[in-house]
Amino acid sequence: AVLSLRAFYQGWSPPFRFFSVFLVIACFTEWFSLAWVRWLYKTEFWEFPQSNYWLYGLYFMVGFPFLMYFLTRLSQYTLSKKIGYLLVSVYFIFSFINYFFIQTLHEINTYNLILASISFIVLAALFFRHLLNKKEIIKLSDTAEVWIAAATFIYYLGATPLNMSLHYLTINNETTALILLNITYTLNILLYTSYAIAFLCKPKILI
């Protein structure tokens, strides 16, 4: 999250600033969720349920559209952009309804997570289609966009099947659910390491 602030003070294009906001939101969510379950849920002034599901649900609803917007802006094809903007709009509306009326803030919002995961995979794939059709030569390992899109694609391709079974396992087999969460945490490390590397590079497509 700290490295991503380069997008602001070095004048990177607006989509990278949206992506930086996404990373800051993700970082804050992780910190606050840990503080919540350990001590913040109960103080001398208030007492709430210890579960942090409400916080992650809020993160899914508010944070994920920033990443969707970034991936949408990567492609230069009009059709790809229209698909991306449609996915962002549909996701935001659905995630709002799901958060407050379907799964609610008292459960893990797996429906939002699954829809977002599929959207990320589609949008990253559309970017790679655009990349393959570019006539100019780009050194992929030095390109920030490629690191971000590739990491997002690989992570959600692996994590989506886990996310699809998470809701069922949380209710029926908590031990297996915890194992899957640990696998997801490992994938998370790889994901955010790639994001950090991206901000050590420079944008070459979005300039």
β content, as a range? under 5%
Structural class: mainly alpha
β-strand number: 0
Rg over CA atoms: 18 Å
Assembly annotation: single chain
What fraction, in percent, of the residue positions are helical? over 70%
Major beta sheet summary = none
Low-confidence stretches: none
Q: Output mean pLDDT.
A: 89
Any idea what the shape is?
Answer: globular
What are the secondary-structure elements, in order, as H or E?
Answer: HHHHHHH
Please write out the topology:
Layout: H1 6-9, H2 14-40, H3 53-74, H4 78-102, H5 110-132, H6 144-172, H7 174-198
Helix pairs in contact: 2-3, 3-4, 3-5, 4-5, 5-6, 6-7
Describe this structure as you would to a colleague.
With 207 residues, this protein is mainly α. 75% of the residues lie in helices and 0% in strands. It has seven helices and no strands. Helix 4 runs antiparallel to helix 5 and helix 6 runs antiparallel to helix 7. The longest helix has 29 residues, at 144-172. The protein is globular. It starts with 5 loop residues before the first helix and ends in a 9-residue tail after the last helix. 31% of the residues are buried. The mean pLDDT is 89.
Features of the shown structure:
globular; 207 residues; 7 helices; mainly alpha
A few lines on this structure:
This protein is an all-alpha fold. The chain has helices at residues 6-9, 14-40, 53-74, 78-102, 110-132, 144-172, 174-198.
